[in-house]
Amino acid sequence: MPFVMTKDGTEIFYKDWGHGQPIVFHHGWPLSADDWDAQMLFFLQHGYRVIAHDRRGHGRSAQVSEGHDIDHYAADAAAVVEHLNLKDAIHIGHSTGGGEAARYVAKHGQPQGRVAKLVLVAAVPPIMVKTPANPDGLPIEVFDGLRKALADNRAQFFLDLPSGPFYNFNRPGVKPIEGVIQNWWRQGMMGGTKAHYEGIKAFSETDFTEDLKIIDVPTLVMHGTDDQIVPYHDAGPLSAKLLKNGTLKTYEGYPHGMLTVHADVLNQDLLAFIKS
């Protein structure tokens, strides 16, 4: 399997399929590159080169002890991009992967002239946790609860989250899709519990405000109004306002995991943005 070695000796797994303009996908917590299956096949069939990696401690990448923070995540993504010498790339990040992609573009990709466009899908920027500067954020107790659930019984927690709020399967009239739930569990359990535990702090407490202000490539912000994981009003509209060249696309009633359960809609919108 293809791996790249980072500067601190961490092996990062990646997929690299097809030819054409590269699209780099950044997955959410606590998943893997496999969460982008529907998008990677779609864009491969439309003539693009598609690349996705497993974040350190996730999926098939090394379960290292250290470096479970956004700076390392972005540097690891940069290692993959530079190893493959990708240019004129579109970066698409979901949830935590949106934060990773934003930090990558701001600190690595844009200064190196490697990035054409950015897409943030139900992404964590600008910042999730409530602080004096972000009084409308989620209380730290919310994330403490996630840490406790993970530490108490990760396997059960990784069934409960996709069975309920991640895909809005807990909403009236929304029928759970068992294969989607099991695939989420499979991806999560492939990773390391230390990486997942420390990753909660990374996605909830990192402030991406300055990253967003730096980014000047065309950026599409996609967010569902019924996102129970990263609330719409705490993320999408705020990110779009901070970006120099940002566009907000709102999806009425869509859940956090909309890239999977509404792939037919999102893929067409992504393709239109990429071609624009």
Q: Can you tell me about this structure?
A:
There is one protein chain. The chain is of the alpha/beta class and 276 residues long. The chain is built from 10 helices and 8 strands. 43% of the residues lie in helices and 16% in strands. Helix 4 packs across helix 5 and helix 4 crosses helix 6. InterPro entries: AB_hydrolase, AB_hydrolase_1, AB_hydrolase_fold. Pfam families: Abhydrolase_1 (PF00561).
At CATH level 3, the topology is Rossmann fold
In one word, what is the shape? Answer: globular
Kindly report the spatial arrangement of strands forming the biggest sheet: 1-2-4-3-5-6-7-8
What is the count of DSSP helices, taking H or I runs of 4+ residues?
10
Oligomer: single chain
How many structural units, i.e. domains? 1
Rg, Å, rounded: 17 Å
Secondary-structure arrangement, i.e. CATH architecture:
3-Layer(aba) Sandwich
Poorly predicted runs: none
Q: How many strands?
A: 8
